[in-house]
Specification:
By secondary structure, the chain is mainly alpha-helical. The chain has one domain: Serine Threonine Protein Phosphatase 5, Tetratricopeptide repeat. The chain has 11 helices and no strands. The chain is elongated. The termini are far apart.
Length: 301
C-alpha cells in the first residue's frame, strides 16, 4: 500500500469541505420562502412583465380590429342607404324606357345583395355592444329589398333587441310587423304593431304632438301591411284610425298636411286593383311600396 502524501490528503479534505458547503447552501435555499429568493422573484417579475405586455398588445390589436370593422361597416351601410334612392331616381328617369330601367335596376339589386351579405359578415365579427339597432335595421331593409326574407326577419328582431330609445324601438316593431305580415305570420305581426301603439307606456314623458305623430304613422304602416296581405277591410280600418288621430290635432296647418298624407295612403292602398289582387312587394318603414326594388314595378322577377 502506497503512503498517502500530505498534499493529497489536504486536497481531499478541501474537496470534501466544498461538497459539504454546497450541500448546506442547497439546504438553506430550501428553507428560504420563495418570495425571499432573489432568483425566484426576478423570474416571477419577468413573467408578469411579459404577461402584462401580451395583454396590452392584445387589447390594442382588438381595439384596432373593432375600429376597422366599424369603419368598414359604416361605409357599406352608407352605400346600402344610397341604393334605394338611386333606384327610385332611375325609375322616374327611365319610366318611359323599361328596358334601360330593368338593366340598371338589376345591377343595383345585385350590388344591394352583395353588400347586405358583407354587412352581415362584418356584424358577426363585431362585439354586440358595438352594433346598434340602426345598423341591424339597415341590413334588414337591404335583405328585404333583395328578397332574403329570412335574413330580413332575423335582423329586424336583432334591431328590436338592440333598441334602447323610443325611435329605434318603434321603427323596429313596425318593420318587424310588416315583414311578418308579408311572410304570413299575421298574429305575430299584429301583436308587434299593437306594441308600437302602446310604446309610450314604456317611454313616458313625451309631448302629445310626438305621441300623435308616432301613432299616426304606426297606423299607416299597419294599414299598408294589411293591404299587402290582401286584408283590405282591416287596412281600411287602420286608415280610419289614422284619420281619427289627425282629427284630434289642434294645429290646423299640421292637420291639413297629415290629412293629405292619410288620403294619399288610402288612394295608394285601397282603390288600386294591383293592391287587391297582387303582392305590392316589400314596404318601406312608412308602409309604402318601394319603387323598383325587389317586387316593385319594372324589376326583373
Amino acid at each position: 500500500m502506497e503512503p498517502i502524501l500530505v498534499d493529497e490528503l489536504r486536497d481531499e479534505i478541501k474537496r470534501l469541505r466544498n461538497r459539504v458547503d454546497s450541500i448546506e447552501e442547497v439546504d438553506r435555499s430550501k428553507e428560504t420562502p420563495w418570495y425571499k429568493n432573489i432568483s425566484t422573484m426576478i423570474a416571477a417579475a419577468a413573467f408578469l412583465f411579459s404577461f402584462g405586455t401580451t395583454i396590452v398588445s392584445y387589447k390594442r390589436t382588438s381595439s384596432q380590429d373593432v375600429h376597422s370593422l366599424r369603419a368598414e361597416l359604416r361605409g357599406i351601410l352608407q352605400r346600402l342607404a344610397a341604393i334605394p334612392k338611386e333606384n327610385i331616381e332611375a325609375y322616374y328617369k327611365y319610366k318611359d324606357n323599361p328596358s334601360s330601367f330593368n338593366i340598371l335596376s338589376g345591377y343595383l339589386n345585385q350590388e344591394n345583395l352583395i353588400l347586405s351579405k358583407q354587412a352581415s359578415d362584418a356584424i358577426k365579427r363585431l362585439p354586440k355592444d358595438q352594433v346598434s339597432s340602426t345598423d341591424y335595421m339597415a341590413i334588414a331593409l337591404a335583405s328585404q329589398n333583395s328578397r332574403n326574407y329570412d335574413a330580413a326577419l332575423m335582423n329586424f328582431k336583432n334591431a328590436l333587441d338592440a333598441a334602447t330609445v323610443l325611435d329605434d324601438e318603434v321603427v323596429a316593431l313596425r318593420s318587424l310587423g310588416a315583414q311578418q305580415m308579408v311572410t304570413g305570420r299575421t298574429g305575430e305581426a299584429r301583436a308587434n304593431f299593437q306594441k308600437a301603439l302602446d310604446i309610450f307606456a314604456k317611454y313616458p314623458g313625451y309631448d302629445d304632438p310626438i305621441k300623435i305623430n308616432t301613432n299616426l304613422h304606426t297606423e299607416l304602416v299597419w294599414a299598408g301591411s294589411e293591404a299587402s296581405a290582401k286584408n283590405l277591410d282591416l287596412a281600411a280600418q287602420h286608415l280610419t284610425n289614422a284619420e281619427q288621430i289627425v282629427a284630434g290635432l289642434p294645429n290646423v296647418q299640421a292637420k291639413d298636411f297629415l290629412r293629405r298624407e292619410v288620403d294619399q295612403a288610402r288612394t295608394t292602398l285601397l282603390p288600386t286593383p294591383q293592391v287587391a289582387t297582387g303582392n305590392p312587394g316589400p314596404t318601406s318603414p312608412t308602409g309604402m311600396p318601394i319603387p323598383g326594388i325587389a317586387g316593385a314595378p319594372g324589376l326583373p322577377r
